[in-house]
Amino acid sequence: MSLYEHVFIARQDLSNTQAEGLIEHFGQVLADNGGKVVDTEYWGLKTMAYKINKNRKGHYAFVKSDSPSPAVQEMERLMRLHDDVMRVMTIKVEEHEEGPSAVVQAKAAKEERGQRNARPPRRED
Fold first, then answer.
1. E strand or H helix at 50, and its extent?
2. What totals of helices (H) and strands (E) does the chain contain, helices first?
3. Running DSSP on this structure, what letter comes out for residue 82?
4. pTM (2 decimals)?
């Protein structure tokens, strides 16, 4: 079996739980066809560089899998037919990187900077 990384964008009018449900659904498609989901990440609702199907934003999701090629092809076929999925990208990799993806690391660093720059509460004597 080969290692793959999949990123897909779902429509902006879905709720967060519906978008995460899509991740589980397509992970199950891989499992039903002999594959295995190694890790998943929900990146959240992000603004896109250009409109896709009249949408300015989209729910981004990232899936790492260890699957045979037919399982990946079936998952991509179902994603392209699904009305809620706007874009799909699958990349075959030699090995999966350990830890969170670069997107999650950048989000955590941004949150950390925000906490450092916050003022401490004022003391009134």
1. strand 36-52
2. 3, 4
3. -
4. 0.80
